[in-house]
Amino acid sequence: MNRNDKNRIPGGGNLRALLPVALFIAIYAGGGIAIGDIYAVSMPLALLIALFAAIMQDRDESFERRLGTAARGAGDPNILIMCMIYLLAGGFSAAAEAAGGVSSTVNMTLSFIPANFTVTGIFIMGCFISLAMGTSVGTVAALTPIAADISGKTGISMPFMVGAVVCGAMFGDNLSFISDTTIAAVRTQGCNMRDKFKANFRIVLPAAAVTAVLFYILAGGAVYAPDEELHYNVWQVIPYLGVLIGALCGVNVFVLLTGGIVLSAAAGLFTGTIEPAEVIPVIGGGMSGMYEIVVIAILASCMSAMVKKNGGFEWVLSFVNRRMSGSRAAQYGIAVLVGLLDLASANNTIAIVIAGPMAKQISERHGIPAERSASLLDIFGSVVQGILPYGAQLMTAAQIAGIAAVSVLPSMFYPYLMGLSAVLFIAFSGRRKQKD
């Protein structure tokens, strides 16, 4: 008899198989708390230790065979494709930024905002920039100094202004076609990016609209005018617009990002912001900046393969089936699963990578469309990430603005409303028939 059989619930999997996930959380989050910095512990190191623990759980096979099982998890086509997309996304982001795309996009957007729509305009600007750039932290870094300047000149509360920035940043975090969370959600659930975008957009649009209205009302008609003329070059914005439009038209993501890199390099060369000799190093540097997330994805996939083999996925699926009857309850289960993992890891991308394979089994069992499960993973990961005082977004914004991260929480309308909208959408959407 397999040693793991004694730990199995008949027809319910093996709870002990989930211990490596708990170990990863304990090392990463617990170690960070003990040190006093949640990001002090290396995530690849924590995952590697958890992977080794998962491999050692099943001692009825040779060590080489267990390694082979873990390696096959890393060799999953969806994981390899996801890693290649990460590299291309890094190359595009670096090339577009070097071409002057970030500053031009910020200035162009700010120049179109009416003076009496300042706070709402900052939120909308954050939505557009995060959707185009695919990075919430990058959006926060670009817009928080502007928000701080507006706060100083208008008397608007600094936490309120920073809240508008982070709310806008979280909009694109779960919608952008080149966001690492979107890539992870789509690849783990096996759906089309455009289908996921449509399903996701329907859920978050009401939350975004109400957030914009709230910021306008609570700002009290504050007026802001920049001290100097805002300079921007449309050519430097074109790569972002090209990627965004191409994604909405359903262009293959590899073609899309490769085209974006070419457009960014051409824009940089045309406007003189990139020298010919700098093109390759800039793109390569952007790709190398994604190495850690690629390694993390591979290690998390190896660990997931072992957890699945040892009965961990089966236990989660059995638990959901016992506690949550029906499609709607299963969707809530996916939301809770990714939310808890994000709460523990303070990284919604990793939460999605770990939760994704389990969410896929839950969705297949209950007939939940792949684009819906991908949307739920991305949305609820962003909901939790957006209100974590120790999350990268709030910590970055607070550090730049010189305020406490917790002071921004009352102004984080969008994550709260996004979560509420998603819960209501699940509650009132029609029941889906289970797939054959």
Could you outline the blueprint of secondary structure elements for this entry?
Layout: E1 8-9, E2 13-14, H1 19-35, H2 43-57, H3 63-74, H4 77-98, H5 101-111, H6 118-133, H7 136-154, H8 158-173, H9 180-189, H10 193-219, H11 234-248, H12 253-271, H13 279-288, H14 291-309, H15 312-323, H16 327-345, H17 348-365, H18 370-386, H19 392-401, H20 413-428
Helix pairs in contact: 1-2, 2-14, 3-14, 4-9, 4-12, 4-13, 4-14, 5-6, 5-11, 6-7, 6-8, 6-10, 7-8, 7-19, 8-18, 8-19, 9-17, 9-18, 10-18, 10-20, 11-12, 14-17, 15-17, 16-17, 16-18, 17-18, 18-20
Describe this structure in words.
- The protein is mostly helical and 436 residues long.
- It has a domain at 79-288.
- It has 20 helices and 2 strands.
- It has a two-stranded antiparallel sheet.
- Helix 7 (136-154) runs antiparallel to helix 8 and helix 10 (193-219) crosses helix 20.
- The chain starts with 7 loop residues before the first strand and ends in an 8-residue tail after the last helix.
- Mean pLDDT is 85; it is low at 1-11 and 431-436.
**Low-pLDDT stretches:** 1-11, 431-436
Total helical segments: 20
Q: Work out the helicity level.
A: over 70%
> Strand portion, in percent?
under 5%
Query: How many runs of DSSP E, i.e. beta strands?
Result: 2
The value of Rg in angstroms is 22 Å
- What pattern of helices and strands is seen along the backbone? EEHHHHHHHHHHHHHHHHHHHH
Which strands sit side by side, in order, in the main sheet?
Answer: 1-2
Classify the secondary structure makeup into a structural class: mainly alpha
Largest sheet: 2 strands, antiparallel
Overall pLDDT score: 85
Q: Characterize the overall form.
A: globular
